[in-house]
Design a protein that fits this description.
The chain has 299 residues and is an alpha/beta fold. It contains eleven helices and eight strands. Helix 8 links the parallel strand 4 and strand 5.
Length: 299
């Protein structure tokens, strides 16, 4: 069994440009069930995240303003979504999905969140469609509950995990590792514990050879007892918001490198889906499905 946090499709009306990317949250579970990669009992629908856990990484002022829909117009523009109670509720469920998935991963070795990967959420603000940083919240939860002593966050999305880097900049118990496009958003990068910025059109060979060298070394040096993996598929050459040149097969091999090392070192891993904005929805679904397929083949 591989637990998968599932969130019903977001129903609140969104601007036209945001509706297409949201389709993957509905179509991905359908695809996994259709092909037999997952069965219905693998899926769980999370409750709302307790604000105690949110406040552990986000400021009370920001969270309270978010929940009360009191953010000023500039802050809402940075987030990019029209603010609504439904959107905030969904964000709280996503955060809880990552916490619950992390809890389950201690038994199953791997767990997924169909959504999540909201790595542009800072301690005191949201950015780029990210309001609450799900993997940061779950990381701090594991530390506070003494379920883990050292955490490694592996962020292989095409965008730097700037919010995650800021949240844990002074926390030696969480090591933040981000690969991303050098010229991609965010244009002002934060400082992760390790950042690797790739040039435009970086191909599979360079991307894969780099992480193949780095990830085992990080695990051996940092000795994490839990890993969070942000598996964005916006590294694809077809992605509208990415500038790298990876293929579907290269993206799949990337996932295999991460999971093979988690398995080798017997470290539980929670996976959040992250970005994916190729023009054809079938490309996005295939790339995300590959992540689940690879995990099932390894664990």
């Amino acid at each position: 069994m591989i637990p998968i946090a599932f969130h019903p499709i977001f129903k609140h009306p969104l601007p036209e440009g945001h509706r297409f990317p949201m389709l993957k949250y509905e179509l991905l579970p359908q695809q996994l069930l259709h092909e037999g990669t997952a069965i219905s009992t693998d899926f769980f629908e999370p409750e709302l995240c307790d604000l105690e856990y949110v406040f552990a990484v986000h400021t009370k002022e920001y969270v309270n303003d978010l929940i009360r829909l009191k953010l000023d117009a500039k802050a809402v523009r940075k987030i990019g979504f029209p603010l609504s109670a439904e959107l905030v509720e969904r964000e709280l469920r996503i955060a809880q999905g990552t916490i619950t998935g992390a809890q389950k991963a201690f038994e199953t070795k791997v767990a997924f969140n169909i959504a999540g990967g909201t790595h542009h959420a800072f301690s005191d603000r949201g950015e780029a469609f990210c309001m609450l940083n799900d993997q940061a919240i779950a990381s701090q939860y594991l530390l506070d509950k003494k379920l883990a002593k050292k955490i490694l966050i592996i962020d292989l999305d095409v965008h730097q995990g700037n919010g995650t880097a800021e949240i844990f900049q002074n926390n030696a118990k969480v090591f933040t590792f981000s690969t991303h496009g050098k010229s991609n958003y965010p244009f002002k990068k934060e400082i992760s514990d390790l950042d690797i910025a790739f040039d435009d059109n970086t191909t599979d060979d360079e991307f894969l050879s780099t992480i193949q060298k780095v990830i085992p070394k990080l695990i051996e040096e940092q000795k994490p007892d839990f890993i969070f993996y942000l598996a964005g598929v916006d590294i694809l050459a077809t992605d509208k918001l990415g500038k790298l040149g990876c293929t579907l097969n290269g993206c799949k091999k990337r996932d295999a490198i991460v999971f093979e090392n988690c398995y080798k070192y017997q470290i539980p891993v929670q996976v959040s889906m992250g970005g994916g904005y190729s023009p054809e929805i079938k490309t996005i679904i295939e790339a995300h499905s590959n992540t689940y397929r690879v995990a099932k083949s390894i664990f």
